[in-house]
Amino acid sequence: MYHPPSKRKQLIRQVVVYTAMSVTIILAVTALVFIMLGYDFNKKDGRIEQGGLLQFITSPAGATVTIDGNMLGSLTPSKSTAFMGSHFIAIDKLGYKTWQKSVDVIPGSILWLNYARLIPTTLTPKSVADFTTVTSTASSPNNTWIAVKEDPATPEIRLVNVDDKNTPLTTLTLPAASYTSPELGKTQSFTFDTWDGSGRYLIVKHAYDDTKTEWLVVDRQDISKTKNITAVLGIDASKVLFHKTNSRILFVQIGADIRQVDLDADTLSRPLVTNVSEFSLSGSSTVVYVTHFDVDKKVRSIGYYQAGNDKPITLRSFTEDALPLHVSIGTYFNETYLAVTYGDSVDILKGVLPKNDIEIATLGTVASFKLAGGAQWLSISANGRFVTMQSAGIYTIYDLEINKMTTTTLKGSTVATKELPWIDDYTLMSDKDSVVRLYEFDGANQQDIMSVVPGFSVSLSPNGAYLYGISKTVSGIYQLQRVQLII
Is the link from the previous residue into 454 a cis peptide, with omega within 30 of 0? Predict the structure, then answer.
């Protein structure tokens, strides 16, 4: 005869069941947390280890990823976990060359491999515009416009819209009133200097009468509004830079002084910084500079000036005059970085810059090392991640994301005479030996793309589908050619 369990037994059973359920839930949650933190069972070591997460994004998308010979089940964009240590990554897509790289995985970290640019196995340059000659070019920072100068003595500018697949070509003629005509029997030449960030305004350098120079700010949308800042403001500038976010503001170097120009008000500021040997811009309008050697104080300095400051702020001073000195400031994930090269010494620091002479800069050392031969050029990339040091045919990158330094020797026998340009956030370009060669920041996945005339602009279209460059045919015709990178 059935006897219902006593209340005591029911209570014990409930406690056991609820305890088992609680333990199961706790174990499951703990397991999920460990999985989320990258822990897994390593069959090779026979133990549970924490790994890292790999994120893959490619251009174009839809590629297969293989990690140490094991193919992932999904196409890019994709992700996978991997154990601590070195792993070999290969990325493939039909019609493209294999992208490959060895990477180091750090436990609990995320490694973003979001820059894999796949190059087609077959590259066929196609001419989109012919020119009798080319003497100067300039690509806008937004990769929309390429300005081409044929005859340097004429006031004509050829503009190619590379954001349009049909690459329409237009001609702009500078108004005669916007520049000074040369004296009888003397020559003139127009060369391109730089675009503003929006791709609307272009700075043109006009040389005339053998020794004279003036600077023109050309409005692509209304050529009649071309402004001669040399004539309007009576200045003899050696360098002109656009404010990064306000194209109606310029920073100019006049002698050893840095001043600000307001194009709308036709005004020139007081000297913002004096005794300057070189300067650049960081962020939208921070002037970063190196001074000449001060014979009285026996030092030269590096520093910066920001709008609103009463005066420039000196960051460091150096007593040796003969050693090359360069400085750059950048921002990466809201952290401020300062890079300094002095002879063969390199210092990379991070922290808060002082706002006045009373404050002390809270800058901690990220890296400090010797660079054989020093650096001719120093910069922090536009995305803030890479400190780039270059000397002729060698460039060294310090990656602030993973605190790793790599050095790459450029292919080719000709000497690099200027700093390598970035065609995107992760890829540099060289035109040594008249060949466009792409280099990832760490020198990996080098690719020869097309033949070009060295020294002229090479530009990636805004959608990344085409790479443009100036080439020269056997018959002597100059052509703007493009290669299709996304097929």
Answer: no
